[in-house]
Amino acid sequence: MSKILSTRLSRRRLLSAATTATSALAAANLFPRRVFGADHSVIKIGFLAPLTGDVAAWGKPGLDGCRIWGEWINAAGGINIGGQAHKVEFVAYDNEYDPAKARAGATKLIREDGVKFIMMLGGDTWPGVQPVADNTGMLFSTLLPSDLSPDTATLVAPAEVHPIYNVTGVDWLARNRPELKSYVICAQDDALGIPSVATYLAAFEAAGIERLGDPLLFDPATTDFAPVVTRMLASKPDIVCLDTAYTDYVHPICEQLYLQRFEGQIISCTADFYDKIIERTSREFVEGLVFQFPDFDDPALETQGVNFRNPNRFFEEYAKRYPGEWGAVSWEYASIMDLWMAAAEKAGSAEPDAVLAAMKEGGKGLHAFGEADWWGTELFGIDNALVGNWPVVVIENGKAVIKEFGNIPEWWVKHGDLLVQHMEAYGQMHYQRG
Amino acid sequence: MPETRALRISGALALAAALVALPHVLSFSQQEILVFLVINVLLVMSYRFLALTGEWSLGHVVMMGVGAYASAIVSKRLGFPVPLAMFTGAAVAAVVAWLLSFPLFRMKGFYFLIGSFAAGEVIRLLWKRFRDPFGGPKGLKRIDELPDIELGALQIDFFDPVAYYYFCLIVVVVSLWFLFRVERSRVGLTFHAIHWRDNLAASVGVDTRGYRTLALVIASFFAGLSGTLFAHYVGAINPNRFSVEEMVYVLTWAIVGGTATFYGPILGVVLLTALNEVVFRELGLEQARPLIYGVVLIAFVVFLPRGIESVVPRLLRVGGGLSLSGGRRGT
Questions:
Q1: In the predicted model, what is the mean pLDDT of residues B209-216?
Q2: Interval A289-303: pLDDT, tens
Q3: Chain B residues touching A51 at Cβ < 8 A
Q4: Which among A230, A196, A222, A25 is positioned nearest to B274, based on CA atoms?
């Protein structure tokens, strides 16, 4: 022992040991092909989203939510398919919001892990995955229905019909704050920001609120928002709309609005970690901010018609495990799993084609916020988006409160042509993309 | 001497056999990663070629993007066959580099570095700004794949990563052979002379700017070619894919591997990709990868400041010493 301890650890030895260890590790992992599917009592679900990098905030919290969902389902006996109970297991792959990595991830999840369903954030990563979906027939879900097109038969958007639900916030605002007459809008110039701009333009036009100037599109690399806010406030708007901006934009823009003494109304698609916005501004400043993503401790979610499993308890558990990390997507992937599980149990099979058929049977489905329609031909060229109610959330006394569940199909019947017109103007219709 | 030649030939044959066999011992997702690895080998080697003249660019990944965009556009819009579109994409990257050389080579060293970054950002912003024909921030998708080959019983589907890997391997080997030959030619020696003593080279009549332009054009051609290989495999490209963050990866591969030898950057890209995309993922360190990757990079810089390539001669000496001593014992 003393001999071992007395041996000098030279840099050369350390390096050579490290190299050997790394090589052994690599070799051990490179060469054996994995065999999967031996345990038929477990159903594996793929989670293919950004878990690191700039867009991780719309991936990782969803995976955390899914893990809670999975534990609850397994504790309750698992998923019943054809009279047999199956446990559910999530297999994650970090695609870093890169289409090439998403392709490699989809291949791994399908061909090595043997998953039966893959949940994605979508967006930039979907085009990389689409050839894999076409070749394997795997069922995928996206949070961004702008990925849908007539060619994407096995892609569904069952939780979030971004950005269409943004119309409910504007509609509520117009009815409840009729004194607000004008607005400005800014957005990051990317795949998430642009379709949302088109939607907000349609919603404000439908509400009869005047637009002051063209939408201010800023580069996604922007970090200094003082000039953006100064330009927006120059026209003295009643409302500032932040579109669908990432947290890294929403927070500094709000801070700038506060510093530049804006006293009007703010509306945004998301206000993730709004407690931090309050810290950077003030409770009074944030009071009345309208957005679209509730905290799940809201009593309104325990009412009849909401299909999410124990929302208040889910929020409580989530907050306990991941304090301060609740965000827009924390519940969404779990709610997709509710829909998938119901369809798999109904179909008596976890196979993608059977689940998809069961999911869409009758053209209706149970969305988290109530019964909804499979819809989308007019906008996406395919009825693979589940559209129904969506909450309008307002910050009151420093806390997000659901004010109502707006009905998207009703708005569409009245103003659908406006939405198509603005989507076309921004090249966002399915026949204009790519 | 003939013994050394025989050793080299047998080494090359063993390497060729290993490269041919490699995809068959990998898992499906590792085959996908292998395709991107081969493409990145071409990218980083073209970058090293540019660095031979002593100029380090921050716009090289954008040149990859120029090739990718050009190839995608001519195949989608003009109906070019994919192989011709690939060549066109690479050629467009070379032409764009030639045009950029006029303002860029008014600068040297650090100023060239910053200038190349600015030029690259201008190109990226143009892709974002003009939805027609570049697709805007969302880029282009549904880019044509390399067409399947059917020759009697032989059927090759290039959606299959193994088939595409072999295609890329052929393209990359031919490209590397070309780069190697140029580097060993008088032109290559002139690049080295410009790198180490550009004023002296100019004083004896070497057109230093012309040679720098030549290096930039050739390097951009092969960077563009790597972009075309990427675009026609993934089927989708967008401006973010060719951002400065990706450029940092290329720089890292080159620095960790070393740029003094032809094989240095290859070692860098292979080792770092294997660590980041295979080892860390397999160890279940999915979300901790950026952190560990950073630590590994720091370790390389601290312990191997001249790159992994600096270890190879030592390893070969050890190997050579063993064989020699073995030979002595035998005699």
A1: 95
A2: 999 999 999 999 988
A3: 286-287
A4: A25
